[in-house]
Write a structure and sequence with these properties.
With 152 residues, the chain is an alpha+beta fold. The chain folds into 2 domains: 1-31; 41-148, Sandwich (Immunoglobulin-like), CATH 2.60.40. Helix content is 18%, strand content 41%. The protein is built from 1 helix and 9 strands; from the N terminus they run H-E-E-E-E-E-E-E-E-E. The strands form 2 sheets. Strands 1, 4, 7, 8 and 9 form a 5-stranded mixed beta sheet that branches. It has a 4-stranded antiparallel beta sheet with strand order 3-2-5-6, with no helix packed on it. Strand 7 (129-130) and strand 8 form a beta hairpin.
Amino acid sequence: MKIIKHKFLSGYNVIITALMALLGFATSCEPIGGAEYGVPHARFIVKGKIVSAEGNAAVPNIKVRMQQDTNFRYFDSAYSESNGNYQVDIVDFPESQTYKIEFIDTDGSANGAFQTLDTVVEFKEPKFTGGSGNWDEGETQKIFNVALKPKK
């Protein structure tokens, strides 16, 4: 009797395992795409050239900080290159956005002493390019050239 009971339970386990496997495969495939998780996003790029207000010479080593206007946390920072060019960017929700940009002379008088400049860059109804068509809307950019005043 014990052997019959053991064979019955073993057979029963095989049947249940096969049914569960079939059920798992049958419900795991979605015929019309899978669910996507995430948040729509886009890359907002601000770039330009930093020059001296007196003489229009390129100013290297200026720290550029970009932050969302409503927060106090900085999202990106960079230093201007030897030719004065800079670029900062933030990945954010793809709609009109406003960002605070700060230009800070951190090297003292090595390249001339310049005043700090705080300003705002607005992306109004931005046009995005290069997105994947899903959550990634691509990127948009704004050219923002700056002339820094020397410290007195």
